[in-house]
Every structure is written in structure tokens, then in C-alpha cells.
Write a structure and sequence with these properties.
It contains four helices and eight strands. It has 189 residues and is of the alpha+beta class. It has one domain: Peptide Deformylase. The protein has a five-stranded antiparallel beta sheet. A three-stranded antiparallel beta sheet has the order 4-5-8. The longest helix has 16 residues.
Length: 189
């Protein structure tokens, strides 16, 4: 496994619709492994192949462990993912992105989404995601369609730069944005 460079806003690959994966061989599985390592090194909670300059429909998502609830981290790798259903309930939440370093914004998204796709071997898989996990999947699938979180903010005035004070107590997406800012980078990929 190897970490890959994460491209940032302004790179043309981020604005293109990614190609459907048709070959499920060792190269695809290597890409998935590299994306997981890159995601963890960033650190982040989600990463789409276009963010590592690969125009393929591949995402990895890792929901952090919840120490208070005693639940372990959940890792997902989806090839050719699609959102097949969402609920009507929408919630506004703060998002950031490894490809938009140092910024966060308020985005409204459904609180439940059913995602269908394949694993690295081409086997069909499906997940019913709720709350934060649903938000992460929707954010990453947006990347596959050339959409960034800044395109979905509820109000452009709600995009903001991460403050140094937030860096000290940050978790989740704000923590991602802050890590990125340290080298001019941090957030949900």
C-alpha cells in the first residue's frame, strides 16, 4: 500500500464525472488499498478516486469509532456506488473536504441514504446509512459527479475558514480541515 497525493480545488479532475469501473482486477484493489491508506494518513473520513486524480467511480469511507458508545470504526469501499434511495428528512451539517483545504460550510443532506455498488472483486453490496455515515457517502458520491461541498452549501456566507482555536478541540470534518491547514490543508475528502 502507498499513500497518494490528494489534489485540491482548481484541478480539472475534481470537476469531471468519473468513469464507471468495468475491470475488477489487482490494479483496482491496489487503488482501494492506497485510498484507504491515504484517507487514514490525511486524516479523513471519506475519499473518492477523483481526489487522488483517478477518474473512476470508487470511494472509501471510514466512520470513526465511537468510544462513548463503544462502537468500532466502520470501513467501506464501494466501486460504482449509487444512491438508490434517501429519506425526506434533511439536516444541515458542517462539511469540509480534503480537496478544499482549511474551509468548512453548512450543507443540507438527507439523514438516510441507501447506497448500492460493488466491492473490489465486483460482488454487489448495499448499505443503509444514517446520519453522519449517510452524509459522508453523499459527499463522496458527489465527488464522482464533479460536485464539491462548496457547490451545495445552503448559503455562501456559511463557508468559513477554520480558526486556530478550533484546531485544538476539533473532531470529524473540522479535524480533517485543520490537518490540511497545517501544510495548507484538512477534512472529509
Amino acid at each position: 500500500m502507498a499513500t497518494r497525493d490528494i489534489i485540491t480545488i482548481g484541478h480539472p479532475t475534481l470537476r469531471k464525472k468519473a468513469r464507471k469501473v468495468t475491470e475488477f482486477g489487482p490494479a483496482l484493489r491496489q487503488l482501494i488499498d492506497d485510498m484507504i491508506e491515504t484517507l487514514r494518513a490525511a486524516p479523513g473520513v471519506g475519499l473518492a478516486a477523483p481526489q487522488v486524480n483517478i477518474s473512476q467511480r470508487v470511494v472509501v469511507v471510514e466512520l470513526p469509532a465511537d468510544k462513548e458508545e463503544g462502537t468500532p470504526a466502520e470501513l467501506y469501499a464501494f466501486v460504482n456506488p449509487e444512491i438508490v434511495k434517501t429519506c425526506r428528512e434533511v439536516e444541515e451539517g458542517e462539511e469540509g473536504c480534503l480537496s478544499v483545504p482549511g474551509y468548512v460550510g453548512e450543507v443540507s443532506r438527507p439523514t438516510m441514504a441507501i447506497i448500492r455498488g460493488q466491492d473490489g472483486y465486483g460482488k454487489p453490496q448495499k448499505v443503509r446509512a444514517y446520519d453522519y455515515l449517510a452524509r459522508i457517502f453523499q459527499h463522496e458520491i458527489d465527488h464522482l459527479n464533479g460536485v464539491l461541498f462548496i457547490d451545495r452549501v445552503t448559503d455562501p456566507a456559511k463557508i468559513r475558514k477554520i480558526t486556530p482555536e478550533e484546531a485544538e478541540t476539533a473532531t470529524g470534518e473540522v479535524a480533517e480541515a485543520l490537518v490540511l491547514m497545517e501544510g495548507e490543508a484538512v477534512l472529509m475528502a
